[in-house]
Amino acid sequence: MTSKRISSKPKKRPVAAKKKPAATKKPAPKPGPRADFGEPIDPFFAEQPPQLRAILEELRQLVKEAAPEASSSIKWGMPVYTLNGAMMCALAAYQAHVNLILSGPREAFADPQSRLSGEGKTGRHLKLTTLDELPRDAVRAWLSAAAQLARNRG
Predict the structure, then answer these.
(1) Residue 147 falls within a domain, yes or no?
(2) What is the 3-state secondary structure of 20-64?
(3) For the chain, N or C: smaller number of CB within 10 Å?
């Protein structure tokens, strides 16, 4: 009878390559204020394409009518109008449309034709792609309401 030698040592298994610990991602640094924060608004208008500039200039005039004492500067990359430090409205330009952003609760802006969008508690907006779409009388009323709200908050 042949005897097999039985070893008391366990068989060596191949050693798997050691995994490197997963790189820990550092949180992205919080961005500071935009370079244009607080700047005058005139360059914003000058940079817009003609079809949007016409809408923006008309809205700008309506804001001046509603609140001649409002101050304006660039915030969040767009002209923002404030009264006594409280936001009244903003004008945003996109590739193919303009938004008039009104600061205030939904119920502050009568909108029987459902022209305003946004369900937020702090504002509504009007989207315009052409100057012909601008409902001037409604915008005057909305801007007056936004101005009064800002005066009361400020």
Answers:
(1) yes
(2) CCCCCCCCCCCCCCCCCCCCCCHHHHHCCCHHHHHHHHHHHHHHH
(3) N
